[in-house]
Structure formats: structure tokens, C-alpha cells
Amino acid sequence: MPIFLDMHKLGDYTKEQLIMGLEDEADEFGVTVHQMMFNEKEDILHCICSAPDIESVEKHHMKFNTKCDKIFLIDEIKTDKIIKDEKLKVIGELSSRFAHDVRNPLAVIQTSVDILKSKYPDISEKETIKFDLINTAISRIAHQIDHVLGFVASKKLNFKLNNISEILDSSFTGISVPKKISVHKSKNNVSLYCDFEAIRILFVNILLNAIQAMNDSGKIDIKITRDTDNVLISFENSGPGIPEKLILKIFDPLFTTKQTGTGLGLVSCKQIAEAHGGKIEVTNNPTTFTVILPQKHIS
After folding, report:
1. What is the CATH number of domain 160-294?
2. Which residues lie below 8 Å from residue 150, measured CB to CB, with a gap of 6+?
3. DSSP-assigned letters across all residues of 205-274
4. Predicted confidence (pLDDT) per residue in 16-41, tens digit
5. Which pLDDT does position 40 carry in this prediction?
6. Rounded CA gap, 138 and 110, in Å?
7. pLDDT tens across 191-209, in order?
8. How far apart are CA 166 and CA 176, in angstroms?
9. Which of 213, 206, 197, 195 is nearest to 267 (CA)?
10. Which CATH superfamily is domain 3-76 in?
């Protein structure tokens, strides 16, 4: 049954009379009023109702000697969340195509670099640095493809019992941690039903975000705890913090404060957490990203 939102004046009735007359069942026109909302002066009423069509809503109000000024089909009203979800769906489709198109030439570049290095093993230190720069650039592009663009498109998760510490250790294998950044990890032996690769991607993105926020110098403290229902993995960093007005925006698609950012890294983190039935919380002083995942198996 379609849902409608209408607006009209109260007419000859008071707010109390209308509320008292609110019924749970449909009337002779098939209209059921689910909620009434009055303006501050209590002379304008908005109704949320289910009805077969707009004509039925009009007939329903005519029996009360009122006429609707406006009637909206709720399906046509887009909330911020609906708009964001639609935007993310489009981004996911484009990202999937882009990732597919870039992977092959990137693999060719990587293979060519490896061949050149093996063919000329005695190159100078200066040339070695150039090769290292190429490899670093390739790694960054590969990260954006596999850890960001590749996961914005929806994927089916493979839930298995995994050790969180092992996933963390695996996350660091693909990250170059600057020498001036110290990392401390708790050694709690906690296992969880999750998708190993998806959670690894989530951890990688949060870690890279922390490293970039600290400008390659500082401290990252990772703690693994659990409560009755959830496993909590917190990533605390000594960076400058996130402005309060931006905290609510950092998980929005395409939002970024970095010149080289895609605005999709934290979006993919949020998606992965929610796909596991969890969430991510962010606090300041110090900046802490806490991944909260349910201990029960999500099917």
C-alpha cells in the first residue's frame, strides 16, 4: 500500500478532536492515518497515511470538510540517507569499471620494472632510488584500486572464524610505516566470525588515514577488547585531531580534506563494518577510530 504525506488546515475540528478520532483501521476509502503532526500554532496538520491512491486521500479528508493543500507520495521524498545511498551506488558501479580497466596496465608496469631490475642488477644507487619510487607509486595505485575502489562496489562476504590479531598483522604487510611512527598493538587473543580480507582492508584504510594525519611522525596505539556482545578494535593516533564540524562528514562519499584523497577510503570502512552488522565510532583528544563488530555470526 502506498504511503502519503498530506498537509491541510484543521477546519472545524480541534487538535484534540482529531487525535481522539484517529483509528487504527482503514476507513471506507481504504485510508489509514498512521501519524498526525501539527504546526506550532496548531492550525495546520500533516498526516502520514497509507491509501490506495491520491484520490482516496482526498475523499478521506472531504468527509471531515477539509481539503488538502498538498499531497506527496512518500516514495518520491528522498531523505539525505537515500540520496547518499544512490550516490554511493553510482560511485560503486563506476569504481568497479575503473578498477577493472586499470589493473591490467598496472600489472604490465610492475612486471616491466621487475624485468628491468633483474636484467640490470648492478645499477647505481641513484637508479635504484628511481625504481623504488616507481614501485611506491605502483603500490599506492594498487591500494586505491584494491582497498578503496574495489570495495566500494558491493561484494559477497566470506564469513569464517578469524583471529583479529592475525588480521592486524596481515594489514601491516602492505603498509610502509615511516620510521618516526611507533606502533603499539595489544596482544589479546580474540577471534571473530568475519571476512578476513574485508576486515584487513578496513584496518589498512584506518591505519593509512592515521599515518597521513600525523605527517609521518607520531604514535599509533591499537587495542583489542570485547564486551558482552561486541569486539572493539580501537586505533588511537597522536595526530592533530579532526575538527568537530567535520566528524559527521568524514564517512560521506567523496568527502576528503586531503589533496590526494579520493574521499572513498573511510566510506569503504563504514560499508565493511556495516556489512558485518557493526559500526565505526570516531572521537577526538586523542583521535580514535573504534571498529565495533558483533561477536555473533552474521549470516
Report:
1. 3.30.565.10
2. 95, 96, 99
3. HHHHHHHHHTTT-EEEEEEEEE-SSEEEEEEEE-S----HHHHTTTTSTT--SSTT--S-HHHHHHHHHH
4. 777 776 766 788 899 888 888 888 78
5. 78
6. 7
7. 999 999 889 989 988 998 8
8. 18
9. 206
10. ORF SCO4226, nickel-binding ferredoxin-like monomer (3.30.70.3090)
